[in-house]
Structures are given as structure tokens and as C-alpha cells.
Fold each of these.
Amino acid sequence: MTNTMKAVRLHEFGGPDVLHYEDAPRPIAEAGEVLVRVHAASLNPPDLHLREGYRSLPPEWQPSSVFPMILGTDISGVVTAVGDEVSGFSIGDEVYAMVRFPQDIMTGSGAYAEYVRVPANELALKPAGITHVEAAGAPMSLLTVWQFLIELGHDAPNPLQSFQHVPIPLKGRKVMVNGAGGGVGHLAVQIAKWQGAHVIAVASGKHQSLLCELGTDEFIDYNKTAAESVAQDVDLVIDAVGGANMERFLSVIKPGGALFLMNPIGFSGYEEAVKSEITVSFTQVRSSGRQLVEAGRLLEQGIIRIIVDSTYPLAQASAAHKRASRGSIQGKIVLINA
């Protein structure tokens, strides 16, 4: 085994063309870690934000320029080495993980590479019956939905709200998912349906057929109809999009209901929510091998599935980022390491 590998590295912040496929030092599994030969890695919004230097954030929140860095958190692959103080994993195991998130949110977790070292407590055996490509598309999106809707699973302070996020019972509830065609959205639809909710999906018309396949009870094409003009008496709105005017969803939620924001930056409806007796809540997704084991059973049993928008060779990561920047993604974009 040589001490180098191929990786996609960043030497400066900027557009997709700053991603370079090149030689890099091969990581070594330290105590409590496992070295994984990456078969596939998926793109997530933080990858794009970090590549640009989080330029949308206030200057004091932007990362320092520590280059070169390797982006990416979500991987599926095979264990090639096991560090000291690790039990439960062996060389040859097929595994998947969201790597060191949010700890490395400003420096990159190293997934866009042939090898990555992963803390053992963030790792889980890959669900049987699904491919590495599908498994790589799961971790961040699946953990996000799991921690929002099923179990938070940690007690870390929330820097953006004064209270801990608490999932609410979904059985028999009316749940609306905005951005239902995307990586988080299509899993939120499936998890809410699994929990016994009546699910309303909001997305562009191109996603309607798929979302109906995944269990959607009602579909709203936002290009034709504003969701807030037709939905009513909703118990929970899950906004997987963010951006301007998130406050518009408050009007469709019944008193005692909730609005869960995947990206709360810019939301300005807190006073209105209090008056309407609506809970507005957010949490930061965190790596968890234990939760990937639990949620992975649903993938293994075929109760939920990962939709893949497109795949690209690892060497073409810049093209994958260009695809992500065009938007209208159905499911996940995945990099394949042959």
C-alpha cells in the first residue's frame, strides 16, 4: 500500500473549477478510527457552501483559508484498516457514514477521495441489498430527517435557538414537505409516511410521479400553485429549501402545530408563530453511526429508498458541482470511485 491516493482537493475558494483531482497523502487510521476505501461519495449543500468559502455568511463566520482541503462527508466503501481501540468493524466490511460533521464543517471531512479515515462511532455497516452508490447518497440526508422527525439523538447546544429540538408524533398527522424532490425532501416524505402521516409534497411537476410512488398523498406543483394558497390545517410543515419568505408557511399550520426549518437563516416569523401557537424549530445534523444502523434497517427492508439524480466519476467532481448548481435535483448526486 502506497502512502498516496487520488483525491479532489481545493486550493482556493471559488466555483466548481477550483476542484482538482490530484495526488494527496493517504490518511492513516488513528486510535478509535477506521480507514475506508471509498467506493462512492455524495454531494450535499455544505460541500457547495464550503467550496465557495461560505460567502453567504457574515465575515466572522466564514472559514479560515487552510488549504489544501478535501470536501465531502457522505461515503460508502470497504474497511481497509482498523485503528487501536476499535471494536465491531473488521477489514473487508462494507460500511457507510457521514464523516466528522459538523466538526469539520469549515475544513472538509475528506470524502472526495480514494480513502478516508472515519471515527468508528460514526460508522455503520452498509445496509444489505443496496449499492454503494445508494448508500453514499443516504447519510447526511437520512440523518437529517431522522434527527428532525424521529430522534434527535444528542444533547449538543443549538447555537440558533435557545431550546433543544424535539420531534413530534406523526401518526395520523397532516405533514407538508416543501422541497420534497430533493435529497432531504424525498426521505422526509418516506419517513413521515412510514410513521403514519398524511403527506403533502411540494415540488416542481417533474417530481410528481416519483413522489407519488414514494407514498405522497397530495402533490402541489409550486410552479402552478402557491402551497400556502391551497394547504390548510397542517400539523407540521418541513421546509427543506430555506431562502426567502419561509414565513408564508405559518398560515397553513393549525394552532399547536409546528414548522421545522432545515435552514432557518433569514426566517423572520417568530413573533407571528408565537401568536399563532406554532412551534418553529431547527437542529444541526450530527454524525451518528448508531442512528445510521437504525435508519439503515428501513433501507435494508425496502421501506424507504434513496433516489439518485446522477453519478459522476470522482475525477469529474467539478462537473458534479456544476450539476448541483443548476438545481432541480431529484434525490442525490453521487461521485463514484472506480
Note: Residues 57 and 337 are 32 Å apart (CA to CA).
Amino acid sequence: MKNLLLNSFVAACYILSPYRISGGNAQASDWGCQVVLCLSSPDGPAKFAECRPPIRKLWRELASGHSFPTCSGVGFHSSRPGYEPYYCEAGYRLEGDFGPHGRKATCVSTALKQVRNVFCVSHGDGHQFVTDSVRSPRWEKEDGRLQCKGHSTARPNVRSQPHYVDITIDGAATQRVWY
């Protein structure tokens, strides 16, 4: 009976919207199917009280290195767990490099921005004034005037939930779930 209920619910969710969960009475016959149903909620995986225990268990299992649970009868795929502790604001991309003090993450603007002229000035020996705050400074002509432009940098933001898995349910768009 529970399998019939689950299959009917999943079919209804797929027909209406692959990421819709309705009511608060989603039932599943096993933990993997509970996880799939809860993750498909557009309001978040722990929106409904019934989802909180299986989702908490999921986070514990993934954090311990266990694989993502499966659910038979549902077209479901998950990636291996990933880890991304940093992110950048819009208009910046995250870059990482190794420096004298270990690995360092930096947000670098995706477009050139006007910066102070001192960054574009040569010091007689052909070298420009370079700091961690501007990359690739150069003179660019804009509106008939030369302007110093470069890619500005910023400190990355730190995620409160840096672990993730990418899930796909019944061929719908892949969704990244952070934990």
C-alpha cells in the first residue's frame, strides 16, 4: 500500500511539476524515497515536519562520507558530495591559487572596472604597481580619454553550508542541495 501511495504521489508530482510537493502528508516506504520527496519541495527540504528527520539523517550520512540514498521506481540521480566553502557576489568569479601561505581563494571581477591610475603607471623599469586588489591593470580608451582599468578583487564570502550534492529527479533540471 505504501509503495502504491508513493508511486501515485511521485507520478502526480511529475505531472504537475517535478519540484512540487503538496500537502504535508508525503509518505514513502523507505528512507531514500522520503529524501527524494523532501528534496523536491520548492520551499526547502525541511519545510514539512515529516521531512525533518529523514533530511537530518541525510546530512549526517553525507557528512560521514556515505553515498546518497536510492529510491526505486523514481528516475533519480545524485552526484558525489562536493565541497565549496566560498562564493562570490554577482559579477565576480572565484579563483584559487597557492601562495606562500597556502591555498588562497579570491573573487575577481568578470569585467574590467575603472581603477586608480596608480595601478597603470610604469615605474621606469617596465613594471607596473601591482597589488592583490587589482589584476591585469591597463590603459583603455573610453569616450576619447585614457582610463586605467583592471579586474578588481574582493574577499570571498564563506558558506554556512559548504557541502552539496547535485540531484536530478525524473530528468528535470539538476538542483544543487547545500548542507
Note: The chain is about 20% helix and 30% strand.
